Amino acid sequence: MSSEPPTTLRTLSVEENSLRGTVLAVQANFYQVQLDGIGDASSESQGNLPQPQLLCTRRTRLKKIGQQVMVGDRVLVEEPDWEGGRGAIAQVFPRTTELSRPPVANASNILLVFALEEPSLDVYQLSRFLIKAESTGLDVSLCLNKRDLISADRLRWWEQRLQGWGYQPAFMSVYTGEGLAELRSVLSHQMTVVAGPSGVGKSSLINQLIPNLDLRVGEVSGKLGRGRHTTRHVELFELPDGGLLADTPGFNQPQMDSTPQELATYFPEARARLAQGNCQFSNCLHRDEPNCIVRGDWERYEHYRDFLEKAIAYEEQLNQQSDPDAALKLKTKGKSGRQYEPRLESKKYRRTARRTQLQQLEELYQETDL
Ligand SMILES: Nc1nc2c(ncn2[C@@H]2O[C@H](COP(=O)(O)OP(=O)(O)OP(=O)(O)O)[C@@H](O)[C@H]2O)c(=O)[nH]1
Ligand SMILES: [Zn+2]
Predict the structure, then answer these.
(1) Are residues 112 and 236 in the same domain?
(2) What is the ipTM of this complex?
(3) Both 221 and 113 in a single domain?
(4) Which pTM was predicted?
(5) Of the four, 30, 104, 141, 346, which is 20 to 30 A from 231 by CA?
(6) Same-domain check for residues 62 and 140
(7) Same domain, 227 and 125
(8) What digits encode the pLDDT tens for the residues 81-130?
């Protein structure tokens, strides 16, 4: 039994002189790759490796086939030069998820960070970020920072309110350390993209989670609260307990660009209603249609209606701009009224929509520098 190679990594490194790893950062044509299993004491053959990361280039044949390499990509590295800390990426493994802005592959979770105070929690803004996060298809975790600034009663009030939205927020304070341990366990062993508006404590949090990192913590200054970042690129940081965090530039309001039909599915409250039954019309937009099961007395229904109007306007704009034929999705009636024609192929439509949505976390990352 001892003749069995202990890991795939070992097999590859011995037999093919190649290794697997994760791309942590991209700069121009260079890729910082964190190799798997390095520093793992059980793997004695790795003991002589001088460093766990290699600065890699992309093999010419990858360039030829147009294979891009993104932060988060799982890659095969060949011909490591251990002394020089260099290597070459020979292969990119299929991605489980892909976001376009910031470009991050294989993230499984979005950690949405908001503050309870300073700046005070704006439910409409929170709703927008939540919808955007939900639209990526990744898991969404909601974390509310600065609990040191509110009373226990107020905290309970927020908890109940957000439970009504379908979320179980994690309350924490970077200042007092409350809630950090719970958060650490949520983040371990997966790749998480951190998102949230400016000034809520994202840098402070990341600094707490990853000692020695020392991201610059800004002051809440003015309405825009400009962030610490001067660069646009995204970078992955390793958590001490395993897991990776994608830090992101300061944000603005994410753009509302879901399709009208899919919007409701990004509200847990609406999802719960749709799980219990169907609206009379399969293309119901949950406004004034008869026998709609989504319309109702839930807090964010107002947000839903508001976002829906924006989604309709956005889709109309897209249809007009890019593809005049696609305008048949929308039928203009009279001067002001718009009406949707029945859409029969909703499955196909939804599948296409989902694909694009995966790339649309990007609006979360619009930089505050307008
Ligand atoms: N009271 C209190 N203040 C906090 C807490 N965490 C962070 N802060 C303060 O909030 C301010 C903003 O923190 P940052 O970490 O820069 O916030 P950010 O989300 O990274 O902001 P951007 O860089 O603009 O995206 C700083 O003055 C922090 O000291 C907390 O738990 N309680
Ligand atoms: Zn409905």
Answers:
(1) yes
(2) 0.98
(3) yes
(4) 0.78
(5) 141
(6) no
(7) yes
(8) 989 999 999 999 999 999 877 789 999 999 999 999 999 999 999 999 99
